[in-house]
């Protein structure tokens, strides 16, 4: 039933010139598909550069403003350890971010062994692949994703079985770096801005 409806719509010669999936007369549906495409091809790519730019900006601020300023009063061995930790964290943030962006989220296998006594495995009507438990079809990526967590606009793809690990490591290292940055600069902040 749904398949028939979908074929009818996608074969319509009056379909949208951009998304090529829905007919013009279904303008609200067409608007959703076009905005999906905008998020994936436009906004998502802009946000990728934004994140790289932001991380690089914080890196430059840490190495050329915060750490030199703190080194005026901090003991040298402590500064040396802090610089090593900062380099380690920033390399890990950039590495895991690029891995999370470039690793496929994980598509389900084309065929799954059907248990004769178990319930039938549902099929995704868009991908025509078995849709096992925890597999979800992402309308933005237009593909099924195993163990789908969410579609992340900051990495411009889904977070699923394939890149879950990299995504968590990226957020973990990012949180650690923020914590370290705040801890190091707290004394300066306290005496110069808060304690006036
Ligand atoms: Zn699907
Ligand atoms: Zn997605």
Task: Describe it.
The protein is mostly helical and 196 residues long. It starts with a helix and ends with a helix. The chain has helices at 2-10, 27-70, 76-102, 164-194; strands spanning 136-138, 143-145, 150-152, 157-159. Helix 2 packs across helix 4 (164-194) and helix 3 packs antiparallel against helix 4. The protein has a domain at 38-105 and 159-194. The chain contains 4 helices and 4 strands, in the order αααββββα. The protein has a two-stranded antiparallel sheet with strand order 1-2. The chain has a two-stranded antiparallel sheet with strand order 3-4. Bound molecules: zinc ion (2 copies). The site of one zinc ion has 6 residues, from strand 4. It is an enzyme of class 2 (transferase). It is a multi-pass membrane protein. It holds the Pfam family DHHC. It catalyses: L-cysteinyl-[protein] + hexadecanoyl-CoA = S-hexadecanoyl-L-cysteinyl-[protein] + CoA. This is Palmitoyltransferase.
State the gist of this model.
Belongs to the DHHC palmitoyltransferase family. With 196 residues, this protein is mainly alpha-helical. It contains four helices and four strands, in the order αααββββα.
Helix-strand layout with pairing:
Blueprint lengths: L1 H9 L16 H44 L5 H27 L33 E3 L4 E3 L4 E3 L4 E3 L4 H31 L2
Antiparallel strand pairs: 1-2, 3-4
Bound molecules: zinc ion (2 copies).
The site of one zinc ion has 6 residues, from strand 4.
